[in-house]
Model the fold of this input.
Amino acid sequence: MIQVEANMTRDGKYTAEIEFITHEEWVEELQSILAERKSVEGNDGENEDSDGVIDEYDDAEKIRALYREDGNKASVNDLMDSNHFRSIPEFLSGKKKEFKTSQAEELSRELWPYLRSDVLSNKQQYWPLVKSVTIKIPNVKDLLEHIVLIDLPGNGDCNKSRDEMWKSVVGRCTTVWIVSEINRPVSEKEAWEILEKSVSYLGHGGQCRSISFICTKTDNINVDSDMNKEDVKKKKRDSILSRNKVAKEKLNEKFNKQIKIKEQFNIDKDFFQVFTVSSKQYWKKSVLQPEDTEIPKLQELLRNLNDRRTKISDYVTGAYGILSLIQGANNSDMTDSKEEVCQVLENNLKEGLKTIGQSMDEAYEAFEQCLSLGVQQSVDSCEKIAKDKVIEPVSHKCSGYHKVLKTLCKNNGVYKPIRKKGQKRPSERNLNDSLASCMRGLSNETFKKYFPNQGKDSSINYLIDNFTLDTNRLVEKHPEVSLHLTFLKTEETKLKAKLKMDIREKKKEIYNILPKSISDTMRPCYERAAQLTGTDSLENMRKELRNHLKESKGEMFNKAKKEMLDLLKEMKKHIVEELEHDLQESMNQSLKTHNSLLVPDVSEEYEEMKKCYEKLPSSSNAATTTA
Done:
């Protein structure tokens, strides 16, 4: 995984930080590679799958990249000799390797052996050991401040730590860019397949709010050269723009047919966009004008993603609230007004919490209903689903499937192959996801209603947005405590923003709990099946999986349902308790604490911050305060 962000220091350097997998993980991977090599050398061809492709990880290439000819026939102890890692002592010490250069080209050369696979090179390459690379670029603050661009591998990784990182990072992406050359965007099957397989991590299991398809090299087009230079330029520009228009139309048609994506998102007109770009023409301007290349549109998209304004707003709001509290403490005691206002606020808080509780109960009941139906359908269909998807799929010959099933059982129900160069990508198999598919399918619409990544009136976030202590109305009636109420309003705003982030993270956990719970129930079975060996091991593994599923299916699906509903209860409890505790504490600080003569005079600071606060886009609802 490669991530690119702005270097916010003033040194003007290009930097890179490489994180390696652990020493123990590489030992485990080597043991698996050598055991598989021994198995292949001594078997009768059982590793061959239905289409004649050896369905294995690209193990030979990993060994060759890191050890060259020394890797042949070597033992794990030999391969872990520290001499092999003299150039990367950070791998053995568990530290990150860092590079810092003045030029981008220089950094690219340094990173080459950590990022690229080159079978023709005799130099040692370290990419099999790399977990992630973070690159920081200077002088791009305008575009990349608070933005991280991540180049993700297709659909996870067979290495557990890299795969967990992949899931975590995908779940935190707010937008997805699919990049493909202009001559094959619609026919780019792999890109659409990866998107389809990743969509649950982006949608209900993530926070993605938009998807963009970026067609590159749009200036690569041939036109008749038997014309004068200006006519050729005009003809080429017209041809490029015409092809761009057709590509956009076809891609939009293709996207509209993506059923699985629509199950996860509330699609609006801005959700899916197509950009037809030419970086070469953006700089040369020989045929296309900058706006024709759509590079400026992409830059504007990045600027709109930048949350600099949100961070500034949070800072100003917080500072203004604290200064309002201090300034208010310098005024007269106003005990009677404070008591009256405090009583009203406590009643407003009580009513607001009651409304939130009722709405959260409605959400719970909606999930309980669809999950109960999901349990019933899962119990009825799980054995057939497991057979067709994993245990005995028709796409694999019996003689070639034992390795896939063995690997799946060793990896707790998940098989993640890596495509070998020049061959089609083997199918990923995930028994836990397959068994959770009925419950997930029946709860998708409920998820879209209550936990959309984009705004919706029925969502839990909308509920938080509409919660208020109604301090604005109280300011009109009690201007003498307007400063105290301003503090309360800013505290309420900060707390609601925090709760919405908490909800965003919690809903990912809620969505992912079904396959996780099923995986936990199936784990003893996976472990037993992984230990089976011998000539009948394939059939014995299948029998083990079938029997366990038949015996535990009712309990397993009801347990998964309960765990999801328990997380919903926890979310409600967290929201209500946070609002009640934090806002009551803020009321106590501002309205139930006696003023002190030791409070400093912050009149000037208060007035300055008030001007900044009133300039914020969201300050139109701010309470009018009087010092």
Remarks:
- The radius of gyration is 30 Å.
- The longest strand covers residues 130-137.
- Residues 44-57, 619-627 have pLDDT under 50 and may be disordered.
- The chain has 22 helices and ten strands.
